[in-house]
Amino acid sequence: MYVGFVVMSFLLTASAAGNFSQYFDITWGDGRVKILENDQLLTLSLDKASGSGFRSKNQYLFGSIDMQLKLVPGNSAGTVTAYYLSSLGSAHDEIDFEFLGNLSGDPYILHTNVYTQGKGNREQQFYLWFDPTQDFHTYSVLWNPQAIIFSVDGIPIREFKNMESNGIEFPKSQPMWIYSSLWNADDWATRGGLVKTDWSQAPFTASYSNFDAQACIWSSPSGSLSCSFNSSDNLWLTQTLNATAQSTVKWVQENYMIYNYCADTNRFPQGLPPECSLA
User: Fold this and answer.
1) Coiled-coil regions in this chain (predicted)?
2) Residue 73, exposed/middle/buried by CB under 10 A (0-12, 13-18, 19+)?
3) 91 pairs with which residues across the strands?
4) Is 101 within the bounds of a domain?
5) Which residue in 4, 158, 238, 248 has its CB near the most CB atoms, within 10 A?
6) Which sequence positions are flagged as catalytic?
7) What is the pLDDT of residues 184-204, one digit of tens each?
8) From first to last of its 279 residues, what are the pLDDT tens digits of the chain?
9) What is the helix, strand, coil percentage profile of the chain, to 5?
10) CATH of the domain at 127
């Protein structure tokens, strides 16, 4: 009952789902990316020879972005399904969802991170409260000048606020593409690399549907944006978490978070990152 109430209070207004061929380019995989069902379903596959991936045709500077994923079922140990936004270069910005594979019966780990000017080290990891391989679930990023909010099925799980007034960098000037890939990372993905990929289970397949982006499209080289900060259609540009949603983030983190960089004093012996004391 509690989770259901929060979803109703937080969900953004949805728009029509876009066709994958219209919004994305296949970037690698040599035939391992398939677009099916009249452009409404995309699948990535991984075998011992190669993984696969795709990237958005457009770059975005701020957006409310939804994607439904159904993750690799069964023994997916060693695999990573990555879904993220990123700019290019050594000083890039990045907003990450990564799904770390598991042995059959063990939970997936949802890994999140935020990079600014090429610096990450802001990982938070969660177990999910459902089996993400049995059906599609919606994974969302709301990125505006105030904050970055990660959500699962409309439930906010993490907020990274704009704290530039305290000297903390925030992604706001580099347009980003949307990327996704399925790849082998058995040197670290499952139990720190102790469990290797079982290639007898290949090919591994992840599925995507119902992409939706209410976002500002970056036009290069002019550097112009396709949205207005004053438009009633772009209310997401000023949206922040209300008190109910903030309580939900706290509840999710108390019950499902398994790693928080802001609690890892061993990793930061000289002191935790400054945003940890301000969040």
Assistant:
1) none
2) middle
3) none
4) yes
5) 248
6) 94, 98
7) 999 988 888 888 999 999 999
8) 333 333 333 333 333 356 899 999 999 999 999 999 999 999 999 999 999 999 999 999 999 999 999 999 999 999 999 999 999 999 999 999 999 999 988 999 999 999 999 999 999 999 999 999 999 999 999 999 999 999 999 999 999 999 999 999 999 999 999 999 999 999 988 888 888 999 999 999 999 999 999 999 998 777 777 776 666 678 899 999 999 999 999 999 999 999 999 999 999 999 999 999 987
9) 20, 40, 40
10) 2.60.120.200
What are the C-alpha distances in Å from 115 to residues 41, 96, 120, 160? 29, 8, 4, 11
Could you tell me if residue 124 is inside a domain?
yes
Burial 35-55 (b: 16+ CB within 10 A, else e): beeeeebbbbbbeeeebbbbb
Which residue is it, tokens 């949805």?
Answer: 14
> Which residue range is the domain that position 112 belongs to?
20-277
- Provide the b/e sequence for 210-232 (b: ≥16 CB within 10 Å): bbbbbbbbbeeeeeebebeeeee
Q: What amino acid occupies position 160?
A: F
Query: What's the domain count of the chain?
Result: 1
> Which pTM was predicted?
0.91
